Structure formats: C-alpha cells, structure tokens
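Changelog entry: the Putative TMV resistance protein N-like isoform X1 record was regenerated in this release. Current contents:
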Amino acid sequence: NFCSLPSSLGHLSKLLFLGLQECRNLQSIPELPANLRSLYADDCTSLEKLPNLSNFKRVPTLFLTDCNKLAEIQGLENLHSIDVFHMERCSNLANTIKDSFFKGQSEEYESNIYFPSKEIPDWFSHQGMGSSISFDMPLHVENKLLGMTLWVVYAAKEDTAERIFPPQALFSNITNGDEWIHMPNSHRIPVTREEHSWVSHMPKSYFLYPMKGGERIEVSIKMQPPLKVKKCGIHLVYKPNIAEEDQGQSSCVNADDGDELMDDMHFKRGHDVETSCDLSNEEKFGKRQRIEPDRTKNLDMELDQLKK
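Regenerated structure tokens:
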C-alpha cells in the first residue's frame, strides 16, 4: 500500500533486479542504482513519475506494462542503448515518444520496444500491409550498412488475460537461400485488441549471414495467435551520407491467417517451453539458424523469482 520508495534506494550499488509489480498505490520511483539490470513495474496503475535515466550507460530492462498514468520518462530521448522496453497499454507515455528516440538507438546493441502505436513512420523506406515484406539490398553500400530496424504493428480481435511469446522474424535471402531467425530478448506480451508495435533494432554484427548489394531479402513475421500482424516495415541503417534513392526497392507480401510463408514454425504454449519456436528438426529447416539464443525464458525466470 506504499505510495513512494525511500530516496536512499539509489545507493544500493549491488541491487540488480527491482520487482514492484502490482504496487497499485505507488506514485513515483526515486533515483535508481547505476548497476540495476531490470525494473519490473507492470500494473503499477498509479505510477506517474520515473527518475531521469540518462545517467545509465546501459539502460535497465524496463517492464512498465499497464502503467497507464505514466506520462513521461525524463531523459528518454537521450537513451541510445535500451535492451528491452515493455510499455504495452501505456498510451500516455507512448504519445510522448518522438521519432528521434527510435532513430538514435545504438548501432552496437539490439533493442526491442513494445508500445501502443498503429502507424509505421514515413522514414521506413520499406513497409506495407501483412506479415511479410521483401526488398532489394542496395548496390555498393553494404560496407556502410550499420544494421536494420524492424517495425511490426499487431493486435488481437479481443482482449484476454493471456500473455504469450513475443513475435519472431524469419529473414530469407531469396538470392542465395540463406535463412536465419531473429528471436528477441523479451518478456511475454499481453493480448490486446488495441494496435501495438514491436520495434526491434538489430546491429549488423547480429546478422548470421552477410547481405550483399543486389540480393533480394524477405522478412516474415510470426506471431502466436490470437495476435495477428497488421503491417510491417524495415529501415536500413547506414553510415551518414547515404542518399534515400540508394536504399533499394521493396514490395509487400500479404500473408493470410495461416501464415503460409512460415507454417513450418510451430509455437508451443505453457511455462515449460524453453523457446517459442521449435527448431530441433535440422532437415526440416535446412540452413535456417537463429540469429541469437532465445532469452525469453531467462526473463520469465527472473520475474518468477521476484514474485516469490
């Protein structure tokens, strides 16, 4: 039933994980320790203020789902190395986030952000309706490619209390047959009929295979029902001075309810599943590989430990 936390919290240098889930009378959080790795504050429905986070070199993983009174995070525009940021059903906060926040994410680190939004910004040069999009890698600029940002808009037909595995992205090089899967380091996401966005930045160092100029790349998004992809987009991140007309052409593929483009990726439900995608059959997937290990379970285990 407490409304605030002691200001001395910021001096707890060995504090790594702070769990405040469902503290519905909590109105503010003081300065956080510089070594904090994760802040769990889902369902803090009275929370209005967070401390300035711009002093963090590596921003803690932030879980702020259903903090619907939270309208601003000081220093957010200066944060360029966010790992995971959940702010589902936080419309007041989402409305304050500017494009510069997404454009400014570090070229060295992966980031995954979930928030209410139904539109993909115009500066995403490759975008369209449906769960799949393809584009041509520009010629003569692959050495200047720093990474890419993926933007996915999704929603369900109705709200439920269920939380499901986050979406995944299958990258297919149509030109040479290489394939790999991007499995985000994220917590499970709520099922909501309000349109939300998943924005994931992937540095070039995370690509399992190099993508060369002139190659055709297809990106297919898989979401666990009842959530469904509405639209998706890709923004290629380059070193400065790459003209927009040099960034390639794209086309959209509209995958229907069956998600035929990815129907051999099987999801499992339940808390005992280590990954949200079964990749154990090597013959079935051929050259498909993960871009990175799935750490969803690790975040779930952290949360379970905090609840205990």
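The first strand starts at residue 17 and ends at 19.
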